[in-house]
Amino acid sequence: MLAFVGGVAICSWGYQSHAGESLSPLPFLWFVVFVIFGLVLAWARIPLRVRVAAIILCALAMGIWRCEIAPAPQLRWIDGKAFVFNNSQPTSVSGKKLQAWRQFISARIASALPPDEASLVAGILYGDHNFSKQQREQFIAAGLLHIVAVSGFNVTIIVQMVSALFLGMGLRRRHAFFATTGAIFLFAGFTGFSASVMRAAFMGWLVLVAREVGRLILPFRLLLAAAVILLLINPWQLAFDAGFALSFLAMWGLMAWSPLFEDWLRRVPNILGVREIFSASLAATLMTAPYLAWAFNRMSLAGLITNIFALPLIPWIMGFGALTAWWGNWPAYQFISAPTLGLARLVEMIAGSAAWMPWLDLRIYGTSLSTLLATYALIVYLRRKLSGKKDLSTNLSRYQ
Q: Are 294 and 79 in contact (CB under 8 A)?
């Protein structure tokens, strides 16, 4: 899997040299050479290590080949860096129906709440991005924009609720597994198939598969498997999709650093999960800050503070928000939507508090790609040195 990702990286990062100048992808001849050489070594009567190396070489070639056959991406340039630009609308009948349902639910929420609060609730529930420019800037400065990007938390809730529902209805475990699988990917389609949603959906599904077949769940391997599946669908995400990169970097941080930070902060009282939230925020910030500095010349440290107060409110907003979406503007909707409105305004107040701490919204210019890669290499090295041989695999259902 690592070799496949490496092949995608080689081809996709070689696709663009700098703003405005395109390079041709690596010649297809390289793919042919890699595959032939790898297959010869894989089936030759040679030591196992050499055959494993050959298979890795084939996987590397597969990554290059996947980029070769993928349609060229539409790119936009931000400060000399290329990012995928995709404003296409769903063309399939099912995609249009899911989009119509999403618009219908958004309209139900908007009929019961003021515009800003309705956008926030819809974003928390299913990742709808209808923020005003001012509201979006406020949440970016506060380090809270991630709460409107559907993640593993939403998928976990879907999995638990649907599994309990079908098992409670008397379905066999195998039938409940297939029904839950369908619910996961239906939810992913409903939310628009963004990188964070698909990563969470695939990881949630792989956890179900592992439990179904009785295999040990290894979070890092599941994260890598999810990346491979998404890159098979669209290989250009790796180098040019900021949402894809930030989603996997944040998840990587949660699995690698969050347990370590929690251990260091074990003397801090865990009232209302404060220690856990702060550790997770610190871990995600550590892993995403270098990329944000490179891609957008900006990173906010305010999230280390605002997340402590905002994240405990999210489950309540999801619960009351779902009720508000169902009730809409039916009679007495003001009473039904009042808790949702109050909680949404409280989150907005927390996001607005970042204006009191402008020094935490950092602007960083001139970060090169080599500096970015060296920074992550240093982070990985420090993590390995700090952990030693201790196995810090975490409970995936907690952090996905």
A: no
Residue 205 sits at the vertex; the CA angle it makes with 236 and 91, to the nearest 5 degrees, is: 50
Terminal CA-to-CA distance of the chain, rounded, Å?
Answer: 20
Bridge partners for 81 per DSSP = 78
Could you read off the pLDDT of 327-384 as tens digits, one per residue? Answer: 999 998 999 999 999 999 999 999 999 889 888 888 888 788 889 989 999 999 998 8
Output phi, psi for 77, to 5 deg: -110, 130
| HEC profile of 365-396 | CCCCHHHHHHHHHHHHHHHHHHHCCCCCCCCH
Phi/psi region, residue 320 (left: phi>0; alpha: psi -120 to 50; beta: rest), is: alpha
**Cα of 216 vs its chain's centroid, Å:** 23
- The residues near 110 (Cβ < 8 Å, ≥ 6 apart) are 118, 122
* Identity of residue 79: D
pTM: 0.82
d(CA 241, CA 223) in angstroms, rounded, equals 17
Reported for 319-324, long-range contacts at CB under 8 A and 24+ positions apart, including other chains, are: 321/109, 321/121, 321/124, 321/125, 322/125, 324/108, 324/109, 324/112, 324/113, 324/121
What confidence tens digit (pLDDT) does each residue in 82-139 have? Answer: 787 654 445 555 567 777 888 899 999 999 999 999 999 998 888 877 888 888 889 9
